[in-house]
Amino acid sequence: MCSIVEKSTRLTQTIWTELAPKIKYVLTDCDGVIWHSKERVPGASIVLEKLRDRGIQLGFVTNNSGTSRAELLEKFSALKIKANPEEIFCVNNLTAKYLVGKGVTGKLYMIGHKALYDELQAVGLSCNEPGPDPVDDYYQSWSGLHLEETVQAVVVGFDNHFSLAKVCRAASYLEDPKCLFVATDADSRIAAPKCPHLVLPCTGSIIAAVQAPTGRTPELIGKPSTLLADMIRTVYPGLSGQNTLVIGDNLETDIEFGRRSGFTTLLVETGVHKRHHVRRSEAPSFYTPSIADLAEFMR
Ligand SMILES: [Mg+2]
């Protein structure tokens, strides 16, 4: 078995000193990097301020499809971490913008949380309300299930009221090849530090359930999609492989997003993945125990 040294490099003062002058943008994940649920990762806000002081543009990039941009801003404020609205790249908000960009003006079918619903409404898109979709126990009587006449897109995000009835509706709409299929994220699990005995499935499970009867693959908005980099470029046009650092705790989403987009990547070990999870083929450029370590390098 190869050692971690061969697969990824630990960030050191020497490496940082060489890297830092090239970095103009830092795109960081939130949960597991700068906070854990309602608590700040110690030292994270100091690092963010030091990066700002050096003129580096920050982007907070989250795949959390259970949160709206407005709720994220409130969270930053509650945790006393400085963030400007234009620095927040939230998948629900980006999904709504993406649909508008695709010329969608009519009805949507949404499998998702209220946060996604709010973002769709905010850009003037019309869809079903979030929440449970109660149906008859007798499956055959679903033939009476009401469907909208024309649905321009099926949009999937995290939905804690997800059900077979919702798959039935989504799959029926997706029979029309002109109906778009878009997903906020494809995260496999939600981190559950308070209930480590549970596997909490995330949006990836919902996508798989809709894919099974339709054979269709959604356009993915969140990490690791490179579409996300294009959307961030509408705010930060100068973003490039030479001047951007992506910081994240998840190899499959954060680090893979950075890798596919050609950015330098830094895995922090305060969240989902640790150095022993790294595989050579998907290795981050560097790893470090916590984002807080950057404060030491910027003294
Ligand atoms: Mg994370």
UniProtKB/TrEMBL annotation:
Cofactor list: Mg(2+)
Q: Which InterPro entries match?
A: HAD-like_sf, HAD-SF_hydro_IIA, HAD_sf, PGP_euk
Where are the active-site residues found? 29, 31
Could you state a single Gene Ontology molecular function term? phosphatase activity
Q: How is the cofactor bound?
A: Divalent metal ions. Mg(2+) is the most effective.
> What residues bind substrate, as annotated?
223
What name does this protein carry?
Glycerol-3-phosphate phosphatase
* The organism of origin for this protein: Galendromus occidentalis
User: What taxonomic classification does the UniProt entry list for its organism?
Assistant: Eukaryota, Metazoa, Ecdysozoa, Arthropoda, Chelicerata
